[in-house]
Queue: 3 jobs
Job 1
Amino acid sequence: MEKPHKGRKDNQKIKELIELNDELENYFRNTIIPQLFVDANLILRKFTPPAMKQFSLTETHIGRPMEEMADNIRYSTIVENIQEVIRTEEVFEKEIQTTDLRWFQMNIIPYLLKKENRTNGVIITFVDITDRIKVLKELERLNAAHETFIYSVSHDLKGPLANIEGLVQHLVKSSGELAEKMGEDSKEQKFIAELLDRSVKSMRDILNELSEIVKIEKNFKEHVETVYFENILHEVEMMVKSKIIESQATIRYDIQVREIKFSRKNLRSILYNLISNGIKYQKPGQAPEITIKTGIKDDMLHISVSDNGLGIANDQQDLIFTPFTRLEKSIEGTGIGLYLVKKIVENEGGQIIISSNPGEGSQFNIYLKPKD
């Protein structure tokens, strides 16, 4: 009595397998993605119709070694890649180019037999990325042209600017001597000469920062060393000493992490820009108060620079990191400093976040991954 019952179960299983096979065949016929199924002996067992078009495969290739298919890929290492996946049981990804000069993202995925705990082959998927590669190459070309232009402009203008600087400094000196001899009549000339001198210095700052932009955008790596925050902060204070005295600014430290492996020049640039901005954007009639803190937060090095200045509206906070953007036109500046800070931080895999409200000051929070 049990044999017919067992027979019905076997028939049911066969029916389910046939239905599953039909579903798989339907998938193979209709997918638009080239896929290959290769066994552990590197024999091609199955492929989807798009693979026939992209790799000139026919039914006669089934059951044949993968070495024969490798001829359709330029500088192919597909056989070695399959062997590595079978050995390591880890997914492998690579960009490849076919002999008709199309680009594909190749993913090789191990096919695991769970019951036997072994890899019985691989599934290879090819995603056409030709258009994306073309766009990337065009962007690279435009970036290279952009970098060359900035470098040429900043380099070529430095010579004429040096001549102008010499002439302006001579004019400032002459105007000062003339003002002493002639009194009030020459004070205006001295004032104009000093304005010219400041403008020339501002132009030199812009050219120097343009050169920095080229370095930062090319991910130029400065020398990394162990630097001490307090030493760098003292250096920055000396650089902005005149501004501190003029504005009667107060600078406080709360240094929990005292050293970092970083570029000395880049860390100085970060702190200089944030501290000088805290002084520059002070509220009228109120002396700037700036606090610099370092510590560890969520396993990241946390550097914060906060001030009691003008603050920034929420809808303008992203703009301040855009090059040549100046929200306060009446305050002197190039609009490059915060852009450079952001690029330096991001090039090191970090993040900078601003917290600010108009009239309540600003806090810049920098998060960096500690380096061994």
Note: The first strand starts at residue 35 and ends at 39.
Job 2
Amino acid sequence: MNLQERPIHIAGDGFDMLGMLALPAPGAPLRHTGVLVVVGGAQYRVGSHRQFVRLARRLAAAGYPVLRFDLPGMGDSPGAPVPFDSCSPHIAAALAALLHAAPVRHAVLWGLCDGASASLLYLQATQDARVTGLALLNPWVRSEVGLARAQVKHYYRQRLLEPAFWRKLAAGGVGWTALRGLLKNLRAMRQAAAPSLTFQELMAQGWHAFEGKILLILSERDLTAQEFMDHAATQPAWRDALQRPGASLHRLAGADHTCSPPASQAQVEDLTLAWLAAMD
């Protein structure tokens, strides 16, 4: 491999984490920007189908130092698991470790799902000037109302247009189950009177206040991505967010939540590399 990898210890205030640092091979050209991978969901630093390993190695081979790490309670990091909306201290510690271990002065945060959400929450809380970019893949903004809205719009509407659905309904098949699900979601949408959840509003604040570049990648076959777009289009806190200077949106045709098809994974890596090159 035209890169080198080594584990590093990340010490925080009352917690310890294990990270894996990927660097270009000795003597290879080194870029000026580091990449901190903030994983999403109940995963560790490898990711689904080795997603984060492949990403880190591809970026490191192109000259970018990359750190991916285990939050407490995951992978090789001890301690109790940390909710995504409470991990700003852990991101801060990992960022400090990256900037100490690699000869770079600033970095971008690359996050999937609630890792993307945690990255926005971190910037909202810290306004960390060392972070010059955000790469966000399928950010998490789920609430009961948002999920109901997305299911009605992107699932049940399509089912109602399928002749097979009505044939099953007439035959006493699974169509009745689908109809009951539709009614349940409509009730959830109608009964909701509370505003957006606090973490979603804080994410929007982080987005609007951030002065660096934002790369937003959304998978076509992912309900989480559809929820994000619906939320951004309907919630006042997100008004005009996608039109802010420095933000770019890319949609991945046929991709699922973790971009598991090899072609989708390669496209995510290509988009990230092109975005980084334009910043560096």
Note: Residues 52 and 154 are 29 Å apart (CA to CA).
Job 3
Amino acid sequence: MERIIQQTADGSHTILIPEMQTLYHSKHGAIQESMHVFIRAGLQYFPQLSEVRILEVGFGTGLNALLTAIEAARAGQSIEYTSLEAYPLTPEEFQSLNHGSLLQEPAFFKAILNSNWNEWVSICPHFRLQKLAVPLESYHLSDSFSATAIKEGRAGFHCIYFDAFAPSAQPELWTADTFQQLYQLLLPGGILVTYCSKTVVRRAMEAAGFVATRIQGPYGKREMVRAIKQESLR
């Protein structure tokens, strides 16, 4: 599958897949979109927690992981970050991306991109990363949590960054069955955030048990969605 690195409106890189006619990020700015959708609407929803566990569906260029690591270091909030990617970029493609230099964190970005797949790696004192080269349908809590944590009900995520390709490119990932799986992976009171606000997507979320709310989208997009698993966090 051909992948072409392109520059978006804020100067940051994204990737075009001509075969699917889709971009990894918004043409209006990869960094500004990720900051709005995943950091402000996702991670910063939990300022009261000293430790946040995040699941990302779609590691992509590593941008969301980088922004989250930067925020963890800034806020002193401990984050355990699991990211799933069925089709990782090549080392050469990763090395061509400009996210680290634009955000003035080249060492951070290099550490994230060069970290081993399929194991936990400490990127900095407040950020642990687990990159898994698996599709969502093959993921289980036991891939990230101990049997004891699962048995005692302590396993699960506070926040899911749902950054899959658009429904037009990957319709199979925007179904009620998919969102039911994600619902089960969340802790009570957890949230899922995504850039897509299509009615059919919100209905699929609601069929899975979520309360799906449209909120202000990033520049160039009117709305996004925050979906909540409505029970109190422990």
Note: The longest strand covers residues 186-194.
